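Please produce the structure of this protein holding zinc ion.
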Amino acid sequence: MPLRLEVKDLTWWIDHLEANGADASQLREILEESQSPHDPHQEDVEDYIARKLRESTVENGVDLVCPICTNEYPQLVAGVCYNCFRGWSLAARRR
Ligand SMILES: [Zn+2]
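Below is the modeled complex.
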């Protein structure tokens, strides 16, 4: 189930993931990009998510655990599952 994330949650998650030894640098980039004057909001939201997907590291494996929703997936994007990645991108984009 996709999480409903707010921008304030994103900062909390970055700190939380890094405190637990995870690499949250790509998630941080998404958040920082969304706060920059380079306005990604002119882009259609689906185009934006597709672009972020292309730019992010995809990890394939068996029983990879998403650190945000703690479910197991065969694939992680930027260190989290697709659902959380999508929720993250949407939340970062929202103002
Ligand atoms: Zn997840």
